[in-house]
Amino acid sequence: MKDTGMIRSLDSLGRIVIPVEIRNARNIEIGDAVEFFVLDDDILVLRKYTSTECVFCQSMESVTYYKDQFICSSCLQELAGVQNLTPIAPQPQAKKRAKTSELIQRLRKAFEEHPGATQKELANILGISQGRISQLKKEM
């Protein structure tokens, strides 16, 4: 374990603040229970408290310790029965925005092909907003 070398003072009520770097590294959230141990009369050990309840359903009956977590027998059976999981589809990528110069060229072409078109119609043709058509017309 790496030494952090941080020093904290006790407040007037005897409390100490655990630095955010340590809380993040040890996965300690605000409100989590913390255990204290005294070793060899001069070493104070602090760790996140892990109760003996199931990590999934908070049941206290017939729990098994597995990889730093307690899991009850019913949740364990449920996990064992889950074999054919369907992967979660990745979120679709956001559309790439066209460069202004490309949009101006497309707008000029749309003007040539549809000389009497309104801004709303041009926006539908190009797949952009009517306000963007107005902006592009000012830049032309």
From TrEMBL:
Q: Which InterPro entries match?
A: B_subtilis_Trans_State_Reg, Cro/C1-type_HTH, Lambda_DNA-bd_dom_sf, RNA_pol_sigma70_r4, SpoVT-AbrB_dom, SpoVT-AbrB_sf
Alphabetically ordered keywords of this record: DNA-binding
Against Gene3D superfamilies, the record matches this protein to:
2.10.260.10, lambda repressor-like DNA-binding domains (1.10.260.40)
**MF GO annotations:** DNA binding; DNA-binding transcription factor activity
Domain SpoVT-AbrB: start-end pairs: 5-51
Q: Which residues form the signal peptide?
A: none
Q: Is DNA-binding tagged as a keyword?
A: yes
Stored PROSITE patterns: HTH_CROC1, SPOVT_ABRB
What's an example Gene Ontology biological process for this entry?
DNA-templated transcription initiation
- Looking at the record's lineage, which domain of life comes first? Bacteria
The record's annotation in Pfam families points to:
MazE_antitoxin (PF04014), Sigma70_r4 (PF04545)
Q: Where is the HTH cro/C1-type domain?
A: 107-136
For this protein, the record's PANTHER family field holds: PTHR36432, TRANSITION STATE REGULATOR ABH-RELATED
- NCBIfam families, per the entry: lp_hng_hel_AbrB
State the protein's name.
Regulator
Q: Which organism is it from?
A: Paenibacillus popilliae ATCC 14706
